[in-house]
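Okay, is this right?
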Amino acid sequence: MGAMRYSAWQILKQGLTGNAGWKPIWRSPEPSPEYDVIIIGGGGHGLSTAYYLAKNHGITNVAVLEKGYIGSGNVGRNTTIVRANYYLPGNSEFYSHSLKLWEGLEADFNFNAMFSQRGIINLFHSDGQRDAFVRRGNAMVNQGDDARLLDRGELRKILPYLDYDQARFPIYGGLYHARGGSARHDAVAWGYARGADMRGVDIIQNCEVTGISIENGRVTGVETTRGPIRAKKVGMVAAGRSGRVAAMAGLRLPIESHVLQAFVSEGIKPCIDHVISFGMGHFYISQSDKGGLVFGGDLDFYATYAARGNLPMVEHVMEAGMTLMPMIGKAKVLRSWGGIMDMTPDGSPIIDKTPIDGLYVDAGWCYGGFKAVPASGWCMAHLMATDRPHDVARNFRLDRFRQGNLMDEEGTGSQHNLH
């Protein structure tokens, strides 16, 4: 099947003929009996791993196994934010690398991911928070990324609709990260899937892994709902299901799975130009290209594999939104959804080999999964191809919790549900 070329003529032609002539942008192959590499999980991280295995390392005999359809997991269930505003060494260089990849992503895989560097503003509401954001901004600049502190006057010029003088949480200013922004989450998955498929990777949907085959301490393949598949190397890239997938290999990962809700309003005229984060309520909001306000808040704080949340957290998010910007009170909420967060004790991810030869894990992305998609795949592909960690992911070790080398970005302490 030849790749379809997109053009204004094709859009006009397909629009006039019922859109029946579009070709699939990746194949639907039957699984082969054996591959060099199997990736368990067809989300953003799994697809980008396969893409960079083929593109950067020439490893194309690869299968991506997805139990549902491409885009059915967290890559299609997030608030689409892209940023590199991390503080700690280990995290900061990784997300800096990821943002650089984002900036060249669409040209790289020749697909419109609707990446928009509209800028991110983190608000602060006290002298202590201002000091913390000054430190964070300095760390970002030292890493080579951008950061600028805005006082109240500067902030009012670009965000006039906020409630600056509320009694409990007056707005003192904000940290502005101009290169941050958002992207179309589904399009990112489609772009990586198309790019991997064009390089020979088999993307196999509706193929759930039910077991991991191990002989003499080495992985030999997987059992699936579509039969056994052999492989010399297997990567577990299953986000909120990482703990259950690893259990098939007899491993217990330091991960809890929690649900994180998100919401979108009806479409309204453009009013929010940036991504805005409320410093006192873990509330964040942006406006999609279709006009909907996309916003979210905190975890629901109980372990679950259900992609839906509870009503008290809905109320909490709505209260935070109304506290920050009362203007949105009349906007109708169109829909909500939940994504299953794979939470680590220190809030930072894992990209590492496991004690089983040939078995690798990429997990524990907490809130940071979407923005990490390019660099996660880049580094996981490097690890699987060379058996050495990529330099920007060298601290994302599986054994750091036992060794005590935590990467606690928030300084919250080593409990999953505090991150």
Summary: The two ends are 45 Å apart (CA to CA). The chain has two domains: 27-78+185-254+346-418, 117-179+256-343.
